[in-house]
Specification:
mainly alpha
């Protein structure tokens, strides 16, 4: 085996990332019309969340009992002033659905980012060092997997109390295992490759090898898992809010709206249906995007 010079090793990339170049990834995504539609939905949701004060016609918490339970504009008794109707306190449903996107996307992205950081560090350490470190970290992952994630989140939130950042922390700390197991598996197959062996031979530190040579090669599966975890975290946050253990009631969330609207399904269906549709479309769009990224990460996808 030819030993490369340090300069050559620094210039040599780690094994080519499975997802290919950025332009190839973009071209593969654009060929998937369903993924393009999902990305368009996500883009609209992000814009609505960022510019909610400019887009929403009313303050989401402004109450007017004289206008309570008004139907959507296209239904008898509806008004163009409230396109999606009003809830039991006379609050505009369209404004509340728009503002609800803020909490859902923030919780989903924050929880996925936190879980991804924790899981990546654990997976890199376990896969690269092996031995007692691998056994200890993976047994810790097995212990967490023994508890249903939502039940564990309920217990922690019930102990710590409700709050937006508490929910993000809880969902992040309960979701790292899937990242760790995938990263560990990838690293264990990469640590014996020539580029890692040569880096060790010239004295590159373990931290540098993991950061510069191994981490870039696990980014494709991490992106796929992270995308799917965003959807899971959004649904988990809605479940916690539905049970009254999520963010405070004064903060508009789709889960809280579902909880408020369950009593009116028989008479005022729109109070629960519209936040439910928003939650479903968001989760569906994120899952479709995650599936598309998974397909792009497969080199065979470029030959189709």
């Amino acid at each position: 085996m030819t030993v490369m010079s340090p300069a050559a090793t620094d210039r040599t990339p780690a094994a080519a990332p499975s997802g290919g170049s950025g332009s190839a990834v973009l071209r593969a995504l654009l060929r998937n019309k369903l993924a393009v539609a999902a990305l368009a939905v996500l883009a609209l949701l992000v814009l609505a969340a960022l510019f909610a004060p400019l887009i929403a016609p009313y303050d989401p918490n402004t109450q007017n009992l004289l206008l309570r339970l008004r139907p959507p504009a296209w239904q008898d008794g509806g008004s163009g002033a409230h396109l999606l109707g009003t809830d039991q306190l006379g609050r505009d449903m369209l404004s509340r659905v728009i503002y609800g996107a803020r909490v859902s996307l923030l919780v989903g992205a924050g929880a996925a980012l936190l879980a991804g950081v924790i899981g990546t560090v654990v997976g890199l350490s376990a896969g690269y060092f092996g031995g007692w470190a691998d056994r200890t970290l993976m047994r810790l992952a097995d212990v967490q997997l023994a508890f249903p994630s939502l039940l564990l989140a309920l217990a922690i939130v019930g102990f710590l109390g409700s709050g937006l950042w508490y929910v993000i922390l809880v969902l992040g700390f309960t979701g790292w295992v899937s990242y760790a197991r995938v990263v560990r598996s990838e690293v264990m197959s990469l640590r014996t490759r020539d580029f890692v062996t040569e880096a060790r031979a010239i004295g590159v530190t373990d931290v540098t090898i993991m950061r510069r040579h191994l981490l870039p090669n696990v980014m494709a599966p991490l992106a796929t898992i992270g995308t799917l975890h965003v959807a899971a975290a959004i649904v988990a946050e809605a479940s916690l809010s539905y049970l009254g253990l999520g963010v405070p009631k004064e903060t508009v969330t789709w889960g809280g709206m579902l909880s408020d609207g369950q009593l009116y399904l028989g008479t005022s269906w729109w109070v629960a249906v519209f936040p439910g549709i928003a939650l479903m479309l968001t989760s569906l769009a994120i899952n479709i995007t995650g599936d598309a990224l998974r397909d792009v990460a497969d080199p065979k996808a470029y030959r189709r």
